[in-house]
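Hi support team,

I submitted a single chain yesterday and got back a structure, but I'm not sure I'm reading the token output correctly. Could someone confirm the output below corresponds to the sequence I sent? I've pasted both exactly as they appear in my results page.

Thanks,
R.
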Amino acid sequence: MGPIMRRVVAWLAVFAVSAAPASAAGWARADLHPVTQPAPVGGLFALFVAQDGRLSVVGLDAATGATVWSAAASTSRAAPGVSPALEVAGANVIFLAGRGTDTAALTAVDAQTGAPVWNTEPGTFNDAPGRCVDDPSAVCVSGVFGAGEPRPLRFDVATGRRLPAPRVTGPGPRELGAGIYDAGAREPEKLVAVRDGKVAWSRPLSRIFPMAGATSDYGWNFGRLDRLGLFVGSVGSTPVRRKGRDVIDLTRYAVAGFRIADGVVKWRTPGFYECFLLPCPGASQAGYTTPEEADDERVGLRLIERGTLSFSHSANDLTPRLSADANAVIEGFSPVTGRTLWRFDAGRNTGLISAQLIPAQTGAHTVILTGVGGGQVALDLASGARRAVPATARGWCRKPLKYRQRFGYEVEGPAASALYVGQYAVVSCGARTQRRLAPPPQVPAFVGEIGARNAGLIAWSDTAGVIAEPPA
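Hi R., thanks for writing in. Yes, this is the structure output for that exact sequence:
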């Protein structure tokens, strides 16, 4: 998704500052600044953390929270709005390793010890590595070694040996979803799909998203639904420059369902695809990837918006502003046909429209929303059913994890951007107020679908640290 950020609330009262476990039942690490949600690997939790302008991957003992190992990591040349993610590959974890520059090596380390298993030669990479959707024995990433333009690369998961890869031609292709790329060209902008290590099809983006100004340069969100043979997703819209700000027309978004096999559009509707920002029924909410983390989305979600959203042209100011007439409607839809199943008028929900404040979650696919009349309801995203929210109800709020790096990402303007956005934190909160609450001694099972389960505990990344508690 495009760049988003929110002021991080400093709240440490319920945490022990040391690395020792808070109690035998659970633990908290307030000394860590997490960038991603944890992944379960053997007897550990592994995740990305940031400190002093550098990025690392750490392995934490699942039972105590103590640091077992740490390895220097990098985002290389991935855009600041592209969050890193771990690829869990059996007994190993795979990520980009580096030390404070955009030069990195694709690396596999032993998940229990952090010891290197294999490394590629140093290069630069445009996205986070992940298992190839058409070959689970290979890991895919876009990058380049030495001079030349970045291109899709493939490596053997077990050995790191470089494998033949699809020739996606264009200046700097980047992966937008599992098996679909932006080729990098802009006249015209193209989408390219790969299959069996080869290019399956290539189409101008305007054939799938015919709205004026449609581009992935200002955000994207794609799901791959193999069961239906469809890609479902949206791309951003080119802003207009006004008084030093980039202004985006929110009415220029569309959701399209198009065939994985040939790119033919099966349906298209207004709106922006919201799965992964909102918990679509059947879709994975995990912050890491494995071959088993496949999506089986039963109900899709889209946000139909009105008004404008603008960003400062300053490289380090990502705080958005909404026009006075901005409003939104959430629709649940059939991923097969795009047909609307239910609607909820969210009105001027600024956090939802700007993607800065995700609604509090109270169940696997239930969120708390305020309607146009000001009343709050618990909305079942599978059926659209609503019910009242007790004043004392607890929720789990989602807030972006932001961090800084010593090296910057080159953008237009006088300075590079050193401000990056990670995955979403999970914060125990009042369901109606979104005010932070101390985590309960036992947590609901769905929190483990966002974070991870291991050693009889559920661990998650909060804006103020990493926490683990037993399930309810």
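A quick pointer for reading it: The CA atoms of residues 51 and 330 lie 37 Å apart. Let us know if anything else looks off.

Best,
Support desk
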